[in-house]
Design brief:
The protein is of the alpha/beta class. It is 51% helix and 13% strand. It has a 5-stranded parallel β-sheet, with helices on both faces. The structure holds adenosine-5'-triphosphate and magnesium ion.
Length: 296
């Protein structure tokens, strides 16, 4: 298991497992491993929020425990629930002879508990990386429950008592900002805002994922994606789209991104009807050799 000693350590470690962190990403990740505080990662879709948690797990050589959040997620699915069927079978098996007192003591033991991700992360004997993905999809009640867990690293089960963490997980929470998270949650977390990367950074990421793509094509691709992001679109292309586009161009054996190639493949990076029109009109001009000088 890895014990990073410096920010540079973390930076190199993440790179070694295929994640190219920006400066603040490396810094916050390092602090998270040292301070034992959860990290809240916010930013637009497809900029590497989820992947950061996965990469941290690979680099730190820890198991990744993932809780995917959704509307209506409750404790029973996130923390633990009693295995009713098993309890029932136990009661039936014991029904002759044994009194309720005996059975009750029995069926509220750990054997009858179904562990959900949060509990799994807490009771694990080996420290894990806990990814709480898309926390903004849940409601505030859930957030409150989580707060308690993240500050004390313990769970209270009425029938069993308190269960304390055996080890401290590295916790990564991600949010797409669909709702404002509570101040209380933010206060307990380190904060990382992940935005679209600058040109050179994104070029490195694209190269990493598509090493076979020609350098000139990769650079042009990233330049175009950056131009497209400047337009007022419903859904600007993310790193995920850049990577997909690179793979597409490679498969097509494209040696350049000319007008024709762009028109054929732009639906890989732009996925709204109205956005397609905007991009065709604005970026098309840029690629047209006859007018390229004017657009630049
Ligand atoms: N810094 C990076 N280094 C390497 N790959 C990256 C980096 N950032 C993003 N990626 C790649 O971009 C893709 C999208 O990343 P990811 O799924 O983590 O985005 P996300 O921010 O969680 O998006 P969403 O909000 O839609 O869930 C992944 O394939 C990931 O590998
Ligand atoms: Mg994600």
């Amino acid at each position: 298991m890895q014990h990073p000693a410096s920010v540079d350590d973390v930076s190199a470690g993440l790179r070694s497992v295929g994640y190219l962190p920006g400066e603040s990403t490396a810094l916050v990740s390092f602090l998270a491993t040292q301070l034992g505080k959860p990290v809240l990662v916010e930013g637009p879709a497809g900029v590497g929020k989820t992947e950061l948690a996965k990469a941290l797990a690979r680099y730190l050589e820890r198991t990744l425990v993932r809780l995917q959040c959704y509307e209506g997620l409750d404790e029973a699915k996130a923390l633990y629930e009693w295995n009713y069927r098993k309890q029932l079978l136990r009661i039936q098996a014991e029904s002759e002879g044994a009194g309720w007192e005996d059975v009750q003591e029995d069926i509220f033991g750990e054997e009858f508990l179904l562990q959900r991700p949060l509990m799994t992360a807490i009771v694990s004997q080996q420290p894990v990386v806990l990814l709480i993905d898309e926390i903004d999809k849940t409601d505030q009640e859930f957030e409150a429950m989580l707060l308690e867990l993240l500050s004390d690293f313990q769970i209270s089960i009425p029938e069993l008592g308190r269960i304390e963490a055996n080890t401290r997980p590295v916790v990564v929470l991600t949010s797409n900002n669909t709702r404002e998270l509570t101040e209380a949650l933010k206060r307990r977390c380190l904060y990382l805002w992940l935005d679209y990367p600058d040109l050179e950074h994104e070029l490195s990421i694209v190269r990493l994922h598509s090493p076979e793509l020609e350098d000139t094509v990769a650079r042009k691709l990233v330049e175009i994606v950056h131009r497209v992001r400047e337009l007022d679109l419903k859904k600007p292309p993310s790193i995920a789209e850049s990577i997909d586009w690179a793979r597409t161009l490679m498969l097509l054996g494209a040696g350049d991104i000319d007008q024709g190639t762009f028109n054929e493949t732009m639906s890989v990076i732009v996925k709204h009807r109205t956005d397609l029109d905007t991009v065709a009109a604005r970026v098309g001009v840029m690629l047209d050799p006859a007018t390229a000088g004017d657009a630049a």
